[in-house]
């Protein structure tokens, strides 16, 4: 997180995506508007990252994104 803070000073619009292939109860970075934690992996990960890059992270966006995934 210290390195992320340094990078954010140089590029305030930067976003960080952490993908945990085997999700657990912990994450590498605390979730916030410029950090996205993804647990698990499928083809949907790419569209989720694209949505995050496009519009950031907020609850309403992710509820719509999750509800759109067909199980």
Taking strands numbered 1, 2, ... along the chain, how are they ordered across the largest sheet?
Answer: 1-2
Overall geometry comes to globular
The class by helix and strand makeup works out as alpha+beta
Number of strands: 2
Rg result: 13 Å
Mean pLDDT, to the nearest integer, reads: 87
Give the helix/strand layout.
Layout: H1 2-10, E1 16-20, E2 35-39, H2 44-55, H3 59-67
Parallel strand pairs: 1-2
Describe the structure.
- The chain has 71 residues and is an alpha+beta fold.
- The chain has one domain (15-67).
- 42% of the residues lie in helices and 14% in strands.
- The chain has a two-stranded parallel ribbon.
- The longest helix has 12 residues, at 44-55.
- The chain is globular and about 40 Å long.
- The model has no long low-confidence stretch (mean pLDDT 87).
Short description:
This protein has 71 residues and is α+β, with helices and mostly antiparallel strands. It is built from 3 helices and 2 strands; from the N terminus they run H-E-E-H-H.
């Amino acid at each position: 997180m210290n390195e992320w803070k340094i990078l954010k000073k140089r590029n305030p619009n930067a976003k960080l995506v952490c993908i945990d292939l085997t999700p657990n109860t912990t994450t590498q970075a605390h979730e916030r508007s410029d950090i996205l934690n993804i647990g698990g992996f499928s083809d949907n990960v790419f569209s989720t990252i694209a949505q995050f890059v496009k519009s950031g992270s907020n609850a309403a966006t992710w509820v719509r994104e999750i509800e759109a995934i067909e199980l």
